[in-house]
Amino acid sequence: MSCLRVPVVDVQNDNFRELWPSVLLAVKCCSFVALDTELSGLGARKSLLNQCIEERYKAICSAARTRSILSLGIACFREIPDKAEHTYLSQIYNLTLLCMDEYVIEPQSVQFLVQHGFDFNRQYSQGIPYHKGNDKGEESHGRSPRSLFLEILRAQKPLILHNGLIDLAFLYQCFYAQLPDNLGTFTADLSEMFPAGIYDTKYASEFETRFVASYLEYAYKKCKRENCKRMDTSSKYLSIEFCNYPASMSAHIDYRYCSLTAGSSKADKEAVLLCETFSAYGWCPQGQNCAQSHNIDLIIDEDEKGENQKKRRHRRKRKQNVKAVAEVFLEQDGSPPEKQNCAITQELFTAESNEGLCSIPKENELESTIATMEGEWDCSGDHGTDSERMQEEAAATAAKGKSADTDQEGEERVKRGEGGIHRAGFDAFMTGYIMAYVCMLKQGTSRDAEAGPWLPDCHNKVYLSGKAVPLQIVKSMFSKSSKAHSQKLKLVQGPA
Ligand SMILES: [Zn+2]
């Protein structure tokens, strides 16, 4: 059965110099670059979700100034010109980093990261050192994480993130300069740092693809499934290729296996109880101890089953169309340090009544874990058409029949591989994959990237948890860029 074998190149202190030229080449030649970070913590969850975006920015700044990036994932996607459209070569790197300045590391973060396979021994012994804040000495010139970040800016490629505001602040503070105090200054700086635009796949998932959920793994797997259906029914589909790395590099490469087909055959046979909390948020307070299934393939199966049932269709439609966003935040207890595994984005999309009244069905289950809840409701208008829905259903039915012959044993092995090690590199890959998929859906051709914004509807829009409008990455008439940034920009624009 079709299975993606995704190579993630491990970059650490003992091979950073050796791999530097290939990382640089990948960044320079790609069509877009997706980044993801793993952090030592986020600080007070409550202030990170402040209704006032300025206040939220202040809280993120304070987190970025006191915490650090533990690992950086870079996924470069290059559209291959002599192949079928939407064929990309993807090169993925996972950099293990070590911040040399003092920083806070939260116990829950350590716990979460260790549970997800993060190796602190390796981080301390093999992390690539860097300093935060403004330039000190030559760190922006040699082969360092900071100079790599400058090279990414120099390459002027579209930057892809998933729920990227926190990533952007941490990247700025750790590899670029001291964060400006003012949000307007920050966005002005960013707009100059990334002239090809910043794209957020959480925003794209919610406002372009309108999947039932938009957390990273859900959106990725959903895109992968939809793409799989397209391979049979349409000439327009996404195709991802990887480098054939030589055997000499095998010690540095971590392969991740991803089945391309759904696990629906299994779901039909046994009644697996899905964790409702995990289904909605991609995160559950019980973590690995949860008695119910956190299997995203089964969760998507369930969602797709719903799409196929007429009875449920109306509800599903409401679910998608009347968007009720309840924003909840967790008082640090057990919430993950992740910015995207919904540590701070707890959204509920539902509408129970036909009158379009918004409600939170899972309130009771969440009550035990949520200390406080703040809600901002946005009931937006109708999205999508029936014809789209019918096409989707037809495709879903077709795919279901196809997946029935999936080798069960192989599937199990694949599942374990996917659920295991949590890595910035693979998250960056998933982020890039979603973008490539959305891009294919939205435009006939992506070859005329020079002509204008690459994906105009998502251009420079960064997702804001609980808000109907994204953060616009622009330089407004009233905001000036920061002094530290202006100095750095000269370095970017000057000779390497
Ligand atoms: Zn659970």
From TrEMBL:
GO biological process, one term: snRNA 3'-end processing
SUPFAM superfamilies according to UniProt: CCCH zinc finger (SSF90229), Ribonuclease H-like (SSF53098)
InterPro entries: CAF1_poly(A)_ribonucleases (IPR051181), RNase_CAF1 (IPR006941), RNaseH-like_sf (IPR012337), RNaseH_sf (IPR036397), Znf_CCCH (IPR000571), Znf_CCCH_sf (IPR036855)
Domain of life according to the entry: Eukaryota
Keyword Heme: no
UniProt similarity note: Belongs to the CAF1 family.
Residues covered by the C3H1-type domain: 269-297
Bias-annotated ranges (Basic and acidic residues): 381-392
One MF annotation (Gene Ontology) recorded for this entry: snRNA binding
Location of region: Disordered: 381-415
UniProt main location, coarse: nucleus
Protein's UniProt name: Target of EGR1 protein 1
Alphabetized PROSITE patterns for the sequence: ZF_C3H1
Subunit comment: Interacts with U1, U2, U4, U5 and U6 snRNAs.
Keyword Phosphoprotein tagged: yes
Localization, UniProt: Nucleus speckle; Nucleus, Nucleolus
Cellular-component GO terms for this entry: Cajal body; nuclear speck; nucleolus
Pfam families xrefs: CAF1
Coiled coil regions in record: none
Swiss-Prot/TrEMBL keywords: Acetylation, Metal-binding, Nucleus, Phosphoprotein, Zinc, Zinc-finger
Zinc finger residue extent: C3H1-type: 269-297
Function: Inhibits cell growth rate and cell cycle. Induces CDKN1A expression as well as TGF-beta expression. Mediates the inhibitory growth effect of EGR1. Involved in the maturation of snRNAs and snRNA 3'-tail processing.
